[in-house]
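Hi C.,

You asked whether I'd gotten around to modeling the 166-residue construct. I have! Everything is below, sequence then structure, no commentary in between.
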Amino acid sequence: MIKTAVALLLIASFAAPAVAAEGKNSVGINYGFDGDGVFGIQGDFDISSSVKNAPVSAQVFWKSYTDSFDRPLGTYQYSYYGFGIAGIYNFGSVLKQNPKIKPYAGLGLYTLNNKLSGPSAPLNVSSDSGGLYAVAGIRYAMSPQYSIDVNYNNIGGATIGVNLDF
């Protein structure tokens, strides 16, 4: 599953310049501190020229979480993975502060697949859910190619990541 998500994001990163507006696009990895850690991959694509030059981008993401816990009957494993898309508004262009610092906020939709498995027969439960995705954070440009992303979102909590900008 991780290989599929990485392959899709790499394809998107090469296709994005052809379909996105001229500007900053990025592909990144992140780690959320909820639970024992949420791993994520995301792509951000500048769509500002499509929306009257407003400072917005479209974000596509994949997130995964797995946790094991022991009980008297054996070890259980809980996991989820999810996909989503969000619209991101860049406040940095409006606030006119340091161009390396880019505060942002966004809303979108996500879908999650949850799975609980364990030794108790027949415990292998899987379900799908979805909802509204909300994120707010700050990006700091370390160089023209790399940025650090710190945010808070409702799938992963406090999150830190690194982005490759192109």
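If it helps when you're writing up: The chain is about 15% helix and 60% strand.

Thanks,
B.
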